[in-house]
Amino acid sequence: MKLTFWGATRQVSGSMFLLEFDDEYRVLIDCGTDLERENNQETPKSEYGIFPFDPSLINLIILTHAHIDHSGQIPNLYKEGFEGQVLCTKATMDLSEILLLDSASLNQKKYKAIHDSKKRSKKRKDIDSRELYLERQVKEAIENFVTIPFEERFKFKDNGFVTLYPAGHLLGAAHVYLEFWENNQKKTICFSGDVGRKNYPLLVDPHKIPQADYLITETTYGDRHHIDEDGKAEEILADVIQKACIDIPGRLIVPAFSVGRTQAMLYTLNKLYTDRGFTPIKVFTDSPLAKASTRIYEKHVRQLNKQAREFNEENESLFDFENLVYLESNQASKAVSNHSEPCIIISASGMVTGGRVEHHIQANISNPYATILMIGYASEHTLGWKLLNGERKELSIAGQKLPVNANIEKIDVFSGHGDLDDLIDFVKTQDKTKTKNIFLVHGELHTMQNFKNTLAEVGYNQVVIPEKGQTFEI
């Protein structure tokens, strides 16, 4: 069998791994969008369109979880000739549908931009129309999703079985464990997807996986620990709110991904207000996608951790509380800038790359009574990265240079990725004398190199950092 790495190699996003069995059956593990490719860099030309392989020859996709850097190219795979099914959990299918439809909506706007530029005889080099799928391609893809429960062995081909184990990280997220027989020999391989962290709000801890011959693991936090690793989410958030909205009559702006982080924030706020009697400050959730994904979390309460299930039973709601307002329209979003009382605004995107949150930051970055709270990872050169890394005297936002007078805070208690210790624990489920290779993906190169050195210190010497397009016989 061959394993080829087509994405998330020596970078964080774009997960895409191709397994080619000896009987010519082909499985793609994840089919994600490369979020780190610069806007003006066109997709490399290929005889197969936007993919480096023939999509019509792929038999099956197995999806670890719904985030766009893992799922975002699935509609394009169908568009380019794929006719197979997508295996995942039910929650992953539900979240994937709303995320992909949201991407399709953005693509529609990009199509219009291309059309308008052609009218003006200008070429848009930052948009490759080959990658722009629309709603109909999303619906076609979702119709071919097949859901399987966690920890149930599923036969996907002759002499081939897959089992999904809870990974934490996101509702429905899974480690993918494959068993198959070639030449009368059993082989096993595990893809981590994104490894979650222990004691995360709402989500279960990552489950232990069986022994595998080959392990493919993400490395996002493979060289560092969470700064808030010993703190509880309620206590850390309560301290920030106290300083930002109570000690002074200010407003708190929280850039947060619509799926995952926003739900963890709302749940924690609900606990603060319900269990601790914290003064209910007006909370604006400014993302239609966040509202839709919150409803999906409510639908799948049984997959959440014990604490969340018990809280839901006692209070009949995980996320709804006094003074919570969902903003639907752009007009309502902009009107919040005129809200005169202390408030909390949770808005996408988490990296501050477009979206409504950019407007909120633009309107508040020069306000000394405003606090901007960064709660997760941001790619280099994004506005979120600049806020996280101290470029705070002056920032250019939407073409306007603005002085930075707002307070900038950061916490990572809401980061859904496991840190160095969590990743080591994940790898340590494997007997170092039995695992033939460990492949490192989904991380920055220097992080992978550091994690490889750390694994060597604890006895794992069979570690490989693959390059994009590199193929291994396994």
Automatic annotation (TrEMBL):
Q: Residue ranges of the Beta-Casp domain?
A: 262-387
Task: Enumerate the UniProt keywords alphabetically.
Answer: Hydrolase
What InterPro entries does its record include? Beta_Casp, MBL, Metallo-B-lactamas, RibonucZ/Hydroxyglut_hydro, RMMBL
Q: Which SUPFAM superfamilies match?
A: Metallo-hydrolase/oxidoreductase
Q: Which Gene3D superfamilies match?
A: 3.40.50.10890, Ribonuclease Z/Hydroxyacylglutathione hydrolase-like (3.60.15.10)
Q: Which SMART domains match?
A: Beta-Casp, Lactamase_B
The chain positions of domain Metallo-beta-lactamase read: 13-251
Q: Which CDD domains match?
A: TTHA0252-CPSF-like_MBL-fold (cd16295)
Q: Write down what this protein is called.
A: RNA-metabolising metallo-beta-lactamase
Species this chain originates from: Emticicia oligotrophica (strain DSM 17448 / CIP 109782 / MTCC 6937 / GPTSA100-15)
